[in-house]
Amino acid sequence: MDRFVTRRRAQADQPSGNIDDSREVVEEPPEIVGVDSNGSAAGGESSPPQQAKKTDKPLPFMGMKVRRRANLLRECNGDYIDVPSDPYLSRILRKQGDGKVLFADKVLRFTGTGKIKRRILLITDLAIYIIDPDSDVLKRRIALAAVDKLCMSELNDDFFAIVIPSEYDCLMASTRKTEIVNTLLEATKSKSEYELEVFRSNR
């Protein structure tokens, strides 16, 4: 019995280096690890969050023109190609006695044979101008008084048609279709107090 007491006392009295007794040893409480709703551990050293995998799959309606809230918030600038800075377009308007540009932008025009032509559409307070952007040649001038009505489909597309009873109709497409139609309505009403009819049909 004495030999066991002697050995225990020797271990207790044995110094373990220079120990500063003035420092108070505080035991840190054990860290509580919980489990979140996904079944992964929460708290402590967690694994870094994984980045979302990039996929090439497009989002719904991406790249499609769906007339929705985007068109309602879109600002209308009127002249999108800066007509005054283009000497050819300015000269065409001066020859026709026009100067006030209400709308100007590049559009697509569809011919009777189904061909697609890139054109510049100019709308003034007197007429509609269709110009070839490559040759800067005036292809057609339509007086606002000659326009009978405008046709659009009931779908969310970019197509619209200008109906002229005395001439052939003009079918075009533009992402600014709504602004073009509103400009024609306001220009016609301000000059002749006649409001154009907007006909909607999918036929």
From TrEMBL:
Record domain TH1: where: 65-203
One function term, GO molecular function aspect: cytoskeletal motor activity
One Gene Ontology cellular component annotation held by this UniProt entry: myosin complex
Domain of life: Eukaryota
Region (Disordered): 1-58
Pfam families for this protein: Myosin_TH1
InterPro entries, per database record: Myosin_TH1
PANTHER family: OS01G0621700 PROTEIN, TH1 DOMAIN-CONTAINING PROTEIN
Name of the protein in question: TH1 domain-containing protein
Species of origin: Dendrobium catenatum
